[in-house]
Specification:
mainly alpha, elongated, 2 helices, 92% helix
């Protein structure tokens, strides 16, 4: 395995990580933004409200995207195992 192949494998791994984490990060950031604006407008200074909604939103999106996460990780793992088998 050369340097270019190692860089290619690392690049593919980073792309898979981004595909897996982006929906969760986007939903969490959106919920945080909406709650910050809501708290600013209504002068509610309750920090646990924002944290609770972020946790709920994160869990909800993880349950929704769990099959896609599984498929992405399974496909990438199979590709890596095939590359390992080719080395021998």
């Amino acid at each position: 395995m050369g340097i270019q192949e190692a860089i290619g494998v690392s690049y593919e791994a980073l792309i898979v990580i981004i595909k897996i984490t982006f929906p969760t990060l986007a939903i969490t950031a959106a919920v945080g933004l909406v709650m910050t604006i809501f708290q600013s407008v209504t002068n509610i200074n309750e920090s646990t409200l924002q944290q609770d909604l972020k946790i709920f939103g994160t869990l909800l999106i993880l349950f929704i995207t769990a099959p896609a996460i599984y498929i992405a990780l399974r496909d990438y793992t199979l590709v890596i195992f095939e590359r390992i088998a080719m080395l021998q």
